[in-house]
Predict the 3D structure of the following.
Amino acid sequence: MGRSRLTYQGSYHHVISRGIKGEDIFFDDRAKSYFLKALKGKSTNNRIRIFAYCIMDNHYHLILQNSSDKLSDLMRQLNGQYGIYYRKRIGGRGYVFQDRFKSTLIQEDRYLEMVIIYVLLNPVRGGVTEDPWDYKWSSIYDYFNDEDDSFIDNKFVEGLFRKKSVLDNLLVQWSGKDLPIKKTRVGDVLGEDKFIEEAMEKFDRRKKKGESKRMRRFEYELDPVKRVIEDFEKEKGVKIEGINIKSNEGKSLRNELLVLLKDRSGLTYSEIIQYLPFQKLKYSSLGQLYKRTKEQQEED
């Protein structure tokens, strides 16, 4: 099992995901625009509320609510879809994002205001611009305007700040400041001590329940795809791109990888078929292939 995250249904989070080795994975406007479309689709499908975002060249920030308890699903699907897009445009092989995204649990009210301001100021901290309103790849223009086509929950954010002038003033006041993040044994938290204590108690209760066989999905994450593939390649002594699917041995390896990606990482068939060993298969055949391979493994 993957390492536990401090999260629960309805919790607020500041999420950061970076390109592998600090690479500029959002290298032009077209790439950033594609990512936003993917974020809109995946957040809608997973029923995750997005309050703010900022896309930089080598990473992105999200402020969201884990409203459906599917935070990990959202991140896996979002980074997976963009990773495929990136490789199609740039070429090459390998991973696009770092293994795990960073997530900070946030208390409501002023702490949520604080971290939204922090995210909107990211282009200023990064030296891209002196004025956050000059940066078009954040959600700053989704607030306090007459348009109603934003996919983020801008009305919620407007309710926090009440007036555009308040937002403007806080952007000035918070320029150059860092967040008062507090470290815990299971992750970063932004909030008061009492909030942290309650969150930790909730985490411990769920962890204790998770020791039973019927472990709930939101208490623990599935293994990251990167780890599953690395373990597979190390054990088999072959890169997944090098599997010869024309041979019986190659087909056997491909089928074993299919089971691992579905069982250990929780990938859907539509996600699995994007990987090279499966690209020549019909989508409709994956379910039967998975079932047949599982049955063979159980017999062995």
Notes: Residues 222 and 265 are 5 Å apart (CA to CA). The longest strand covers residues 12-18. The radius of gyration is 21 Å. Residues 71-90 form the longest helix (20 residues).
